[in-house]
């Protein structure tokens, strides 16, 4: 990919309120996952592995933890001289200043940033998703179709289709219909919320949408339908592979536990397309003489003196002597003290169970 | 801390480490699951606030440069100061009492000349410890001594460490080997930059010697002081001490001290996923690194990154380095397996507690 052919705008402003206590004090993309990662690692790593060297991260809700985690972007090789990662929060202007009103509004308010890098294409991503994707393939499809907008889609089980934005496409992949959460879906292709726009198409659409007082300024609800209605060249790119939006506590727990399968659906160990993270340097974990570990993942820095079964111990966790941890997730720094029992639980960062 | 620059001698080796140091110097020796010995002095210096450190590399420097790179992991990838690679001339000086080869300091004296800092903190690279070097720095500045040496009272006889002869609180000489209860030099000292440059110049004719060898007769002309270190310090000189000190990390008290959060040991980062234990895994009293996949049995061992222990494989009392695979039915006991070894099913590798069996490094697979 030529430099600045395509830049990414990563939406990381949401709370993810259905993750309850996990997002009380931090934004959803900053939530720990898989022992040593934070959810945003997956989209940032995808950008790095797809040779996208300029990424704007749109923050809003509780951004402090996320901002410090991203830092200079070095952990994802995004500390470049002519690009790299840029944190883009809402900002004040001479005429006031607004919180981001929606996903499209967030990008609209940063059109100057996009123009400063002058890419031909803009990739819109969410920082909430767990998946591995080479965006160059999606860009190639965008170019091959001479599209103005390409939407990444995935086949979902028909029973679940009504939960998604559903796309009906013709044989060439040209989008004919787009319906949010249809009661009677006529297609099983769900929008993943990943878009590639040709820059001028994006600009025009966002500017027009900003003038519409009835709009919710959301890509899925407003921008896509308007472009479709306007007869623009919208195409879909079919993605196959693991992809998850862990938006609720049950799905967070289930997806995490899925990593513990002997042959997990989502394999974290891929040397060709690594998931990079900004983990603190911690020593290898230690399991004591009376400790035990079965069917689990244990990150660096952990000290295990009790029994851990079918669980994830994130960085720097502790399980005391005689303690039992089962079917659970300990987020970084969590401590389960001597003799305690933790079953089917998620312990937040630094939580202590005495 | 602009007053002090660092200098680490990573250009020497020891014949006592056999195959382990055939393709690496002692400073490059993997240790503790994910570190290399040079990480300890380098992290100690950076944690004490030094932001300029020169590393004297051996002639064969690929392995050490690959590890330290531009110093990013130690925040030494800087505009002002930073990490300086100082190429040395010799691959491994087998005489382990020569850590500070004058010739290699002389060849790189531009590093000393270009810095305005008044002091240099010098260290070897084969002693594992988490040391607050600010104490040494303060002691040196306060005492006004020419050189201040860090020492630890030896807990047992050791023929490899350097002993210090002390009279009236001043160092008057050095001995090869140290007796229990005597001060053992920890290869870490403070010296003024101008003095170091002068010594290099005065003794240029015999610069094939170690710094302290040339100073042998000069203790009466200089003021050489001491600073005591009372924490855990482990000197790696031969396979026995290498084995023993890795195993000492299995003691939670040692683990907590060496890997203190207050002064973290920094090392090159690699993006391995967390270790995974499958059904039937049995593990006890062991250090296990990221990327390991354990289905078999692991006891009293140190596993480096990416090690696979298949179901039915048993590893005990051993050190297993990066990317080794212990296939089902393999048995490894009292061994040191260097990188990339695949132990086939049914193989039994047994050393003894006195002498670990060593399997040398294999090439990376394409």
Walk me through this protein's architecture.
The complex is a heterodimer of chains A (354) and B (366). Chain A is built from 8 helices and 28 strands. Chain A is of the alpha/beta class and 354 residues long. Chain B has 366 residues and is of the alpha/beta class. Chain B folds into 2 domains: 4-258, Spore Coat Polysaccharide Biosynthesis Protein SpsA, Chain A, CATH 3.90.550; 276-359, Hexapeptide repeat proteins (UDP N-Acetylglucosamine Acyltransferase, domain 1, 3 Solenoid). The longest helix of chain B has 11 residues, at 133-143. Chain B is elongated. At the A-B interface, strand 16, strand 17 and strand 18 of A face helix 9, strand 14, strand 15, strand 16 and strand 19 of B.
CATH architecture of the largest domain in chain B: Alpha-Beta Complex
Low-confidence segments of chain B:
none
Helix % of chain B is: 10-25%
How many distinct helices of chain B? Answer: 9
Give the quaternary arrangement of the chains.
heterodimer
End-to-end separation of chain B: 45 Å
How far apart are the termini of chain A? 53 Å
Characterize the biggest β-sheet of chain B: 9 strands, mixed
- The average pLDDT score of chain A comes to 93
Query: Which structural class matches the secondary elements of chain A?
Result: alpha/beta
- The CATH homologous superfamily of the largest domain in chain B is named Spore Coat Polysaccharide Biosynthesis Protein SpsA, Chain A
Secondary-structure-derived class of chain B: alpha/beta
DSSP summary, beta strand count of chain B: 28
Radius of gyration from the alpha-carbon trace of chain A, in angstroms:
21 Å
The mean pLDDT of chain B is 93
What shape does the CA trace of chain A take?
globular
The third-level CATH topology of the largest domain in chain B is Spore Coat Polysaccharide Biosynthesis Protein SpsA, Chain A
CATH class of the largest domain in chain B: Alpha Beta
């Amino acid at each position: 990919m030529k430099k600045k052919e395509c830049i990414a705008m990563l939406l990381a402003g949401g709370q993810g309120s259905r993750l309850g206590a996990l997002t009380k004090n931090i934004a959803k993309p900053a939530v720990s996952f898989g022992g040593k990662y934070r959810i945003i690692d997956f989209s940032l790593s995808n950008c790095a592995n797809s040779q996208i060297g300029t990424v704007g991260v749109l923050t809003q809700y509780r951004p402090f933890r996320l901002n410090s985690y991203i830092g200079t972007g070095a952990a994802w090789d995004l500390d470049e001289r002519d690009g790299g990662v840029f944190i883009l929060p809402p900002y004040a202007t001479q005429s006031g200043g607004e919180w981001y009103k929606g996903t499209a509004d967030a990008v609209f308010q940063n059109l100057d940033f996009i123009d400063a890098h002058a890419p031909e294409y803009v990739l819109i991503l969410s920082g909430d998703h767990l998946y591995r994707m080479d965006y160059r393939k999606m860009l190639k499809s965008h170019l091959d179709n001479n599209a103005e907008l390409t939407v990444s889609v995935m086949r979902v089980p028909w029973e679940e289709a009504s939960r998604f934005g559903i796309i009906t496409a013709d044989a060439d992949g040209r989008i004919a219909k787009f319906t949010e959460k249809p009661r009677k879906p006529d297609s099983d292709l769900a929008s993943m919320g990943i878009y590639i726009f040709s820059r001028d198409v994006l600009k025009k659409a966002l500017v027009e949408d900003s003038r519409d007082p009835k709009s919710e300024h959301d890509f899925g609800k407003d921008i896509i339908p308007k472009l479709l209605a306007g007869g623009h060249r919208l195409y879909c790119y079919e993605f196959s592979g693991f992809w998850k939006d862990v938006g609720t506590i049950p799905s967070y727990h289930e997806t995490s536990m899925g990593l513990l399968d002997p042959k997990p659906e989502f394999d974290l160990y891929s040397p060709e397309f690594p998931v990079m993270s900004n983990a603190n340097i911690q020593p290898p974990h230690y399991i004591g003489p009376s400790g035990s570990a079965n069917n689990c993942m244990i990150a660096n820095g952990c000290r295990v003196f009790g029994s851990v079964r079918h669980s994830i111990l994130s960085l720097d966790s502790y399980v005391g002597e005689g303690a039992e941890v089962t079917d659970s997730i300990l987020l970084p720094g969590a401590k389960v003290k001597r003799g305690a029992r933790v079953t089917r639980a998620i312990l937040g960062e630094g939580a202590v169970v005495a | 801390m602009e007053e002090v620059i660092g200098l680490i001698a990573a250009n020497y080796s020891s014949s006592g480490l056999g195959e382990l140091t055939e393709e690496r110097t002692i400073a490059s020796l993997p240790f503790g699951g994910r570190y290399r010995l040079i990480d300890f002095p380098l992290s100690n210096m950076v944690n004490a606030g030094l932001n300029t450190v020169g590393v004297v590399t051996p002639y064969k420097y690929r392995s050490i440069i690959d590890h330290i790179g531009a110093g990013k992991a130690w925040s030494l990838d800087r505009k002002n100061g930073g990490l300086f690679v100082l190429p040395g001339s010799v691959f491994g000086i087998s005489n382990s009492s020569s850590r500070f080869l004058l010739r290699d300091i002389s060849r790189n004296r531009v590093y000393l000349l270009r810095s305005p800092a008044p002091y240099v903190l010098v260290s070897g690279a084969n002693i594992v410890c988490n040391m607050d070097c600010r104490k040494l720095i303060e002691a040196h500045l306060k005492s006004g001594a020419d050189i201040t040496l860090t020492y630890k009272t030896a807990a047992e006889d050791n023929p490899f460490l350097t002993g210090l002869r002390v009279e009236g609180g001043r160092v008057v000489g050095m001995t090869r080997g140290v007796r229990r209860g005597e001060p053992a030099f920890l290869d870490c000292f403070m010296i003024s930059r101008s003095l170091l440059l002068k010594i290099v110049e005065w003794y240029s004719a015999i610069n094939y010697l170690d710094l302290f060898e040339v100073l042998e007769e000069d203790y009466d002309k200089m003021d050489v002081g001491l600073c005591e270190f009372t924490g855990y310090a482990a000197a790696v000189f031969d396979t026995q001490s290498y084995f023993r000190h890795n195993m000492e990390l299995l003691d939670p008290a040692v683990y907590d001290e060496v890997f203190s959060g207050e002064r973290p040991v920094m090392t090159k980062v690699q993006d391995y996923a967390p270790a995974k234990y499958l059904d039937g895994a049995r593990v006890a009293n062991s250090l296990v690194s990221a990327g390991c996949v354990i289905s078999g049995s692991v006891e009293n061992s140190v596993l480096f990154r990416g090690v696979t222990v298949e179901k039915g494989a048993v590893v005990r009392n051993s050190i297993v380095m990066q990317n080794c695979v212990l296939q089902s039915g393999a048995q490894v006991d009292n061994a040191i397996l260097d990188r990339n070894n695949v132990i086939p099913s049914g193989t039994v590798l047994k050393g003894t507690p006195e002498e670990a069996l060593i399997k040398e490094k294999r090439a990376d697979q394409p």
